[in-house]
Amino acid sequence: MTLPVPFRAALLDGVAHGFFGRQGGGSGGIHAGLNVGLGSADDEAVVQANRTAAVTAIAPGACLLTPYQIHSATCVTIDAPFVERPQADALVTDRPGLAIGVVTADCAPVLLADTAAGVVGAAHAGWKGALAGVTDATVAAMVARGARAERIVAAVGPCIARASYEVDDAFRQRFEAADAANERFFVDARAAHHRFDLEGYVVHRLAAAGVTRVAALGLDTYVDEARFFSYRRATHRAEPSYGRQIAIIAPVS
After folding, report:
1. pLDDT, tens only, 18-52
2. Residue 166 belongs to what H/E stretch?
3. 113-140 in b/e burial notation, b at 16+ Cβ within 10 A?
4. What CATH number should be reported for the domain holding residue 103?
5. Which of 43, 61, 175, 178 is deepest in the core (most CB within 10 A)?
6. How far apart are CA 54 and CA 127, in angstroms?
7. Does a structural domain hold residue 202?
8. Which domain holds residue 237?
């Protein structure tokens, strides 16, 4: 299999990292491309081969670890490979030889690094996890391992863009109940509906946690079918399954 080529963030230059789309890989049908979703209705052997290709493309020989994602604010610090995936939506490590990742299909993948401390993090920020503070928890876990918030750099990878993300009044009210200033992440759409800027909100939460150097790739998973999987697009088409893409980062050896 030809190794896939990831999207990268200049802020993370010097750190082994990558945001992968669907291009490359061996999956077919509605999962065509680099589907890495263990929970998808795809051939598991092909999914595992796709995951191996992705980690090899950025950190050859590293052990790839991903959590069992539950749309939470839970972050787990990893010191060694695990067999049973922890139920969490973010991982942190400082151990060379490990690579950590999160899978997404519209939610925002976030990769973080403090190169001076040798600590990296990967977070899956869907709206529930973002609102609950998954990025705050990731920054706190990195700091507990010797990172400093002001040294951390972060990148927000491909996710659903505001123009594609229509939500209802109840959704908006959850965010404004948490902070009235969150109204700035919404614009009006049709009656009783709004469009939500998930990427902008995640960048805001990172800044509020002290991470001021953040790159947002600005890539919309919903509209760019050739490059990305999208849960919402698959749902709108009533497709029986959907693929996932992966974001991976590894500590500097």
Report:
1. 999 999 999 999 999 999 999 999 999 999 999 99
2. strand 166-168
3. bbbebbbbbbbbbbbebbbbbbbbbbbb
4. 3.60.140.10
5. 175
6. 26
7. yes
8. 10-161+197-248
